[in-house]
Design goal:
The structure is a homodimer of 385-residue chains. With 385 residues, chain A is of the alpha+beta class. Among the domains of chain A are: 92 residues, Beta Barrel (OB fold (Dihydrolipoamide Acetyltransferase, E2P)), CATH 2.40.50; 109 residues, Bira Bifunctional Protein, Domain 2 (BirA Bifunctional Protein, domain 2), CATH 3.30.930.10. In chain A, the strands form 5 sheets. In chain A, strands 1-2-3-5-4 form a 5-stranded mixed beta barrel. A 4-stranded mixed sheet of chain A has the order 12-13-16-17. A 3-stranded mixed sheet of chain A has the order 6-10-11, sandwiched between helices. In chain A, a hairpin with a 2-residue loop joins strand 14 and strand 15. Chain A is elongated, with a radius of gyration of 27 Å. Chains A and B meet through strand 1, helix 4, strand 6, strand 8 and helix 5 of A and strand 1, helix 4, strand 6, strand 8 and helix 5 of B.
Chain lengths: 385, 385
């Protein structure tokens, strides 16, 4: 048997006999010709069997193969008859590795999300899910490259933690050999300690919130990247957020254009993610909301509706700073000229996606930090661990 | 004030006034000269204050600064007086950002591990810990680059899972909105499903084991990378493990030589990690053990002592294959010519580090897989989720 190759490598083997391993994606026949679309994860290729050339019995067998049958196909690589730049395989032999035990449950017809999530392992085999996975992987890579290339040291925070960075109401608890331990809501406090050691640090891993709400804004488990830079002030933090978003989005646009097309993503909103991002204060955001008839007042937090209204004023992400301290966690530094406000920022994405980055300047005065812990009724001793 | 720079950038600013932000690592004085070693995470630089040049009162203040005081130092970059290729700063001004509230608890004297772990956030500030973090970050990067560059798609598995990939005795349980959920012991089953969709997949994230033993071989939480390749057999799996280890180790040797020197790591054992790795069967490993007076017999599992004895026979990692199926999880394919043996492999590292990779060919026959689940008394329905 010829050495196995992947579909994405066929170009290097034109005129040569190769063996592919993959799954039957679709099948159709036309007289003496049988066309098998085979996918192997790197692409889909048309494999053609011409009855007069086929070994004894093969044509009849191949004609009834079920969707997602696992196959070994041997044949010669040829340029595709009609599609320039593509290739096809003239089948010489074909081996069934494994046959499905049931009919493939996902058809081109519309399925509900529950049905598809119950068949998630099979749903992953669709073009659209491949595209989503590839965009996500590119984004993860872009995020890591950004921080690695900008002098940040990866310092992964532990998942088990004794403290509640984002409040105590959304903690998942587990029994850690007789002691309660919580699943991390954020690696921030660890990344802060690391930044004081190495200057610039980041962690990037799963974080957990036992959210009561079931919306796409309230996930139980999600990956979060958390950079921390010693001595960085609010303006520097906003600069970093801006540069970071521009960098990772342009990389995905450049490298995953084909996938974004499969997803029918209108990329114009992504292409507009360029510097400078507008920067407004919380008070200005409230004014925008009131202008649109929203009855938010100073001291109110923003929900999805408010974030959408605010971001709709701008053609790219907007950085909103100086929220009331009462809305924000204990660790933010207060604005020296207006101590009721935090030196914080939220970056709100266009198209209703809401807050994509939250950050700000950390309190660097120990006495104030301890007073803030007390005001939030958080147990000081747990933060000493 | 001059624009802030990092110590690693000083070479680009010779003769120019710069501002550094960092922490006092050490201090000594000699007559009219005061030497402050300042670290900022990118390096340590000597900052020199000459009393006659110092602004009023600065010399007296600076002379008493405590270790790890947070500082802003302004001064001119000069080549180091005695060390070629290094730089120093002639201090013009110096600002205290924050003073420690207590004496720095870590001194050059030997501390116990418990003490250092209680002060982990400060311990991170030492040269040795920096070196360890940088080697780890390089290794993580090397691992991701290897798979990204070899056509593997990153598909992160969830942390919450209903199933027990590595047995039920070491599971951490949590309450997921009224339902029990477990912390993942392995993303393998998800990566397998992904590989059947995309050909080659990997996940790389934290995994959990509620181990009873407290040893460096038994961690409650650790990051694990898990590649899965459709159609790969045991020999291909061993090739992949070998190529992967050679690649990531050579990258760390090349890029983290300075850190390995700080750690006083004898790199010769690492330099010997070259292809081909010896490949032996479990039966041969048993023979090696017996030769050395170890009383292991066919059917016994290897502990740390056994792994050390086996690996000591070789100058580089050794790949041990064909363990008894009774020692291995349900998902391995049985050797067709000897069905009591698994088509599995463990890669044992030299120097007593033991198993660094476990892998093998997966069972691809559904009926046998279901029989294996039953033989292991594992609940089939949970594996359908």
């Amino acid at each position: 048997m010829a050495a196995p190759v992947y579909i994405e490598e066929l170009e290097q083997h034109v005129g040569v006999e190769v063996t592919l391993r993959g799954w039957l994606y679709a099948r159709r026949s036309s007289g003496k010709l049988l066309f098998l679309q085979v996918r192997d994860g790197t692409g889909i290729v048309q494999c053609v069997l011409f009855r007069p050339d086929a070994p004894e019995g093969l044509f009849a067998r191949a004609k009834h193969l079920a969707q997602e049958t696992s196959l070994r196909v041997t044949g010669v690589v040829r340029p595709h008859q009609r599609r320039e730049g593509e290739f096809e395989i003239q089948i010489r032999d074909l081996d069934v590795v494994a046959e499905p035990t049931a009919e493939y449950p996902i058809s081109p017809k519309e399925h509900g999300t529950d049905f598809l999530m119950d068949h998630r392992h099979l749903w992953l085999r669709s073009k659209r899910q491949h595209a989503i996975l590839r965009v996500r992987a590119e984004l993860v890579r872009a995020i890591r490259h950004y921080f690695d290339d900008h002098g940040f040291l990866l310092v992964d925070a532990p998942i088990f933690t004794p403290n509640a960075c984002e409040g105590t109401s959304t903690l998942f608890e587990t029994d850690f050999h007789g002691e309660p331990a919580y699943l991390t809501q954020s690696g921030q406090l660890y990344a802060e300690a690391a930044a004081a050691a190495v200057g610039k640090a980041y962690c990037f891993g799963p974080t957990f919130r036992a959210e009561k709400s079931k919306t796409r804004r309230h996930l139980a488990e999600f990956w979060m990247v958390e950079p921390e830079v010693a001595y960085l002030d609010l303006a520097g933090d906003a600069d970093l957020a801006e540069d970071f978003l521009v960098s990772i989005i342009s990389r995905v646009l450049e490298r995953r254009a084909a996938e974004l097309e499969i997803l029918e993503r209108d990329t114009s909103a992504l292409e507009r993610v360029q510097k400078p991002f507008p920067r407004i204060r919380y008070a200005e955001a409230i004014a925008i909301l009131q202008k649109h008839g929203n009855d938010s007042r100073h001291g109110d937090d923003f929900g999805g509706d408010e974030e959408t209204l605010i971001s709709a004023e701008f053609d790219r992400p907007v950085i909103v700073t100086h929220y009331p301290m009462s809305l924000k966690p204990f660790y933010f530094k207060r604005d020296p000229s207006e101590p009721g406000l935090a030196l914080n920022m939220d970056v709100l994405a266009p198209e209703g996606y809401g807050e994509v980055i939250g950050g700000g300047q950390r309190e660097d005065d120990l006495a104030r930090l301890e007073a803030s812990l007390e005001a939030h009724k958080l147990p000081k001793e747990q933060f000493e661990q």
